[in-house]
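Entry type: protein chain
Record version: 2
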Amino acid sequence: MEKVLVTGATGQIGSELTLALRQSLRFNSVIAAGYSQKDNIEATKASTHIAFDIRDRATLKKVVQKYQIDTIFHLASLLSAVAEERPQEAWDINMTGLFNVLEVARLNQCAVFFPSSIGAFGPKTPAMNTPQDTIQRPTTMYGVTKVSGELLCDYYQKHYAVDVRGLRYPGLISYKTQAGGGTTDYAVDIFYAALQSQSYCCFLKADTQLDMMYMPDAVNAAISLMQTDSKHLTHHNAFNITAMSITPKQLAAEIKRHIPEFKISYQVDPIRQAIADSWPKHLDDSCAQHEWGWHPQYTLSAMVKDMLDKLANKLSGVCHVTG
């Protein structure tokens, strides 16, 4: 990777991935792209930021050629809950955007990173230790776009030799940007609530078990995969990865170790609960471990402590964290 384009650079993953790439590459080697200019997003500060719609292939092509891009991290999409509310728009953005990226990559010899998700699975998928290669029949539009995206990436890799690689991300937890429209958003919102009001009302049931990951691990996984010698890869695309498999009740208990006053209640959102119930509880990520050395750095306890410390600082030190 020498010249990188990050689409969706102001999103939850993109904002932190852009910063990490800028730190590991030359300062001006990372181009941040988003639907609109957001000056308050840290990732776009002091770096080249371009605002355009990912469905505009002509502009995408011009950007790639102008900046001599060799690698595209394609993160622009609508997330699960929002996609279910606006399914037609989700298909248009998620699939047209990916197709444009792959076509531009094919014509300009770019490598591509595509993030899939646990949403690519469905209720008929084995829920525990979900295999790398298994049945995928998602029941949400988000999931449909993700499994369709995986297949499209495989097609471009097989037929056009485009170096497309990807990960199936679990729920992601970050203190730098708040989540926006995901079923696992509770795992971010709960920290803000714990520090600001010492109470949180969760939209999922207490025992809803899902894979989760702290954002530093998610960012490192993407960069590590793209830096791996291709001769070591069998799957290339859609690797299962995970760091911890937890429930809202377990996450709340770990937060309570640091903030004893914290209390959690539950008011279930039927739409997001149905989405969560259709997803695996724990992924088997042994293929990622064997093919490119994947290994998470953060356990649940380490993530919660770091998240509370960093978020407390972000919130101007108003909240006191014990432990």
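Comment: The two ends are 42 Å apart (CA to CA).
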